[in-house]
């Protein structure tokens, strides 16, 4: 006869993606992958290993999608019901662990993560339930969200090399609260700064020091978290934010104010994490380089930051540059989502002539005529790819929105980066694998839904004042608000 566990019970659920208001793409239900069972638990090594066995963690559905345009409301509603069904089936729960991003936009809705947290809390058992959240530091954290989630935390690195550690930290915080019976309070502060991700990389200052300062919290503080925010969401919640959790109300307020004021104090010091300039300047830099591969980040349409993947304006410039098309050494531009272009290439076959307009698949208002030879065709579980060669330039067309952010991504289409003179890539700061292989790198400030020149954005709904759009004043006073019930045993 089995004995029922007396441990606290917690369910892991989530819906996560990152959405640009300026992307013509819309994220549909088919864009999401849904993890269940062991595929959820493997995201939390401390849970999977049994290290936190004082709490019975149960894997519910966790849905994730590649960043892009706002989520269709019908898709969100469908995923939400799947999450809520799983939560209701085991309710009441002692705790919930939300595995989310923090910058999800849903058509017709503001603050989707707060809606998710509210609905999940209601389904799990209401106010007694302790909610934790593991998030991306590029989330926009509203006062409503801070009031709903007891134990939120986020990555401390960009690029995000600490994802498993962050999810484990959230799980440990939840286990600590459930086992101890302590319901900690939290202090939240909106930081009126919105900066592009490529200016807030923790590889460089001032973000490196800001995040390093979170590692050793003062007495009475359980967790200190800093979100740099997501600048391409045209919503009132768009801004950086700090949340500090703990039992000592004075300590969490002071620490929250310290973090917020420290961020504001260095707002003018944030700069691009690598040499940056126009695409013309970047191509000049590549032409002057003697290294291989030299990498240019085509930043405005980065699909892992919310780009639609269908912007062809960089391709137009490459085709018009004889140093690219007729120069010494191979050049690759990756990648443009254009299913019709891929089908056209498949129809003519390898070695066949390709001639057609590409780009604007989701509605970006430009297309480019591409003429060349079908050099390579690939079809596998990740989708269909056609490589079109025009002189020395290889243009990568994909049937799906596809990032090329590692050597393995290029090896899939038989491109050896070590033999490629110039790689022009829809990416921002280089992910670790490309960072290691690149022998020279610059950021090109190009057009797209995640244009790094955020002063170019047609923002209409953000809350002002907001740096760099406005003068936020100096000295700036941190407005710290307490959330939650306080330290209740």
Automatic annotation (TrEMBL):
Residues covered by the Microcystin LR degradation protein MlrC C-terminal domain: 296-461
Name of one Pfam family that matches: DUF1485
UniProt domain Microcystin LR degradation protein MlrC N-terminal: residue ranges: 9-286
Descriptive protein name: Microcystin degradation protein MlrC
Protein's organism: Flexivirga endophytica
């Amino acid at each position: 006869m089995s004995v029922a566990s007396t441990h606290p019970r917690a369910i892991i659920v989530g819906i996560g993606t990152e959405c640009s208001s300026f992307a013509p793409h819309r994220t549909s239900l088919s864009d999401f992958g849904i993890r269940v069972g062991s595929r959820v638990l493997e995201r939390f090594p401390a849970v999977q290993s049994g290290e936190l066995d004082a709490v019975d963690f149960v894997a519910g559905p966790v849905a994730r999608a590649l960043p892009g345009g706002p989520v269709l409301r019908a898709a969100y509603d469908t995923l939400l019901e799947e999450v809520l069904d799983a939560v209701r089936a085991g309710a009441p729960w002692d705790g919930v662990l939300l595995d989310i991003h923090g910058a999800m936009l849903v058509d017709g809705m503001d603050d989707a993560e707060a809606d998710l947290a509210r609905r999940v809390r209601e389904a799990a058992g209401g106010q007694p339930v302790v909610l934790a959240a593991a998030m991306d530091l590029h989330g926009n954290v509203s006062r409503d969200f801070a009031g709903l989630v007891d134990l939120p935390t986020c990555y401390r690195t960009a690029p995000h090399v600490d994802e498993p550690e962050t999810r484990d930290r959230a799980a440990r915080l939840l286990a600590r609260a459930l086992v101890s019976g302590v319901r900690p309070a939290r202090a939240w502060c909106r930081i009126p700064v919105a900066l592009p991700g490529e200016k807030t990389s923790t590889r460089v200052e001032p973000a490196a020091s800001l995040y390093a300062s979170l590692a050793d919290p003062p007495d009475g503080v359980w967790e200190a978290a800093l979100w740099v925010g997501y600048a391409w969401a045209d919503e009132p919640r768009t801004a950086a934010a700090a949340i500090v959790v703990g039992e000592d109300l004075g300590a969490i307020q002071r620490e929250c104010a310290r973090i917020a004021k420290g961020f504001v104090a260095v707002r003018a010091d944030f700069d691009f994490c690598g040499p940056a300039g126009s695409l013309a300047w970047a191509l000049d830099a590549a032409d002057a380089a003697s290294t291989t591969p030299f990498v240019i980040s085509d930043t405005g349409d980065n699909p892992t930051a919310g780009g639609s993947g269908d912007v062809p304006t960089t391709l137009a410039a490459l085709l018009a540059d004889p140093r690219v098309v007729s120069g010494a050494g191979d050049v690759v531009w990756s990648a443009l989502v254009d299913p019709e272009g891929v089908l056209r290439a498949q129809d003519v076959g390898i070695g066949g002539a390709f001639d057609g307009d590409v780009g604007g698949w989701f509605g970006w208002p430009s297309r480019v005529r591409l003429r060349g030879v079908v050099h390579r065709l690939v079809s596998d579980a990740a989708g269909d790819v056609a490589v079109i060669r025009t002189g020395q330039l290889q243009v990568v067309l994909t049937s799906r929105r596809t990032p090329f952010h590692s050597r393995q991504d290029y090896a899939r289409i038989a491109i050896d980066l070590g033999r490629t003179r110039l790689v022009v890539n829809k990416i921002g700061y280089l992910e670790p694998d490309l960072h290691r292989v690149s022998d020279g790198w610059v950021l090109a400030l190009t057009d797209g839904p995640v244009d790094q020149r955020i002063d170019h954005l047609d923002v209409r709904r953000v809350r002002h004042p907001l740096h760099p759009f406005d003068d936020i004043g100096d000295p700036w006073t941190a407005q710290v608000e307490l959330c939650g019930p306080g330290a209740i045993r």
